[in-house]
């Protein structure tokens, strides 16, 4: 009987056993490496202009950044014949601000040289009056006089 109790207690102890967590050594503290190429006040400037006569695409963009303030302008030709121009600025205090305006497209008229007239005065030809002889055809059947 004692053996049965021992087996019962051993089984219960085994069922309640938990895995012991392994003790890990703390990770070493990494030294902070300073990036000497980091610029706390970056500055840039760029721009592009697209004038595609084949597709009719006409747009442009100019932007610059200095002292944490981004400013720029972009423009695009609208289908209604105007140009949309957007001037914008962005900074940490005021956020993004844009001013949108429309201006008419300045379309240059093609230069066409007028050709000199070939004749100074056109003369109408005189009317041709000709009388044609009447067309006379023979009778298709013979006339018989009944008496």
Characterization of the model:
The protein is mainly beta and 147 residues long. It has a 5-stranded antiparallel beta sheet, with no helix packed on it. 10% of the residues lie in helices and 33% in strands. The chain has one helix at 2-16, and strands at 44-52, 57-66, 69-77, 82-91, 95-104. Strand 1 (44-52) and strand 2 form a beta hairpin. It has a domain at 41-107.
Based on secondary structure, the structural category is: mainly beta
For the largest sheet, list the strands in their spatial order.
1-2-3-4-5
Regions with little confidence, pLDDT below 50 for 5+ residues: none
Any idea what the shape is? elongated
Question: What's the gyration radius in Å?
Answer: 50 Å
Give the rounded overall mean pLDDT.
Answer: 81
Rounded to the nearest angstrom, the distance between the terminal CA atoms is 167 Å
Largest sheet: 5 strands, antiparallel
Structure summary, number of beta strands: 5
How much of the residues is beta strand, in percent? 25-35%
- What is the ordering of alpha helices and beta strands? HEEEEE
The percentage helix is 10-25%
Task: Report the total helices.
Answer: 1
Organism: Acanthoscelides obtectus
Signal peptide: 1-17
InterPro entries: CHIT_BIND_RR_consensus, Insect_cuticle, Insect_Cuticle_Struc_Prot
Protein name: Larval cuticle protein A2B
């Amino acid at each position: 009987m004692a053996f049965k109790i021992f087996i019962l207690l051993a089984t219960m102890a085994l069922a309640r056993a938990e895995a012991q967590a392994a003790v890990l050594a703390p990770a070493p503290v990494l030294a902070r490496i300073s990036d000497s190429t980091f610029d706390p006040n970056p500055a840039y400037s760029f721009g592009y202009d697209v004038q595609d006569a084949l597709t009719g695409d006409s747009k442009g963009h100019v932007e610059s950044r200095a002292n944490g303030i981004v400013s720029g302008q972009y423009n695009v030709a609208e289908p209604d014949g105007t140009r949309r121009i957007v001037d914008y600025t962005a900074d940490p205090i005021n956020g993004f601000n844009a001013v949108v305006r429309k201006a008419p497209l300045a379309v240059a008229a093609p230069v066409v040289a007028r050709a000199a007239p070939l004749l100074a005065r056109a003369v109408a030809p005189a009317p041709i009056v000709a009388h044609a002889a009447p067309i006379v055809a023979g009778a298709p059947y013979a006339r018989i006089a009944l008496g």
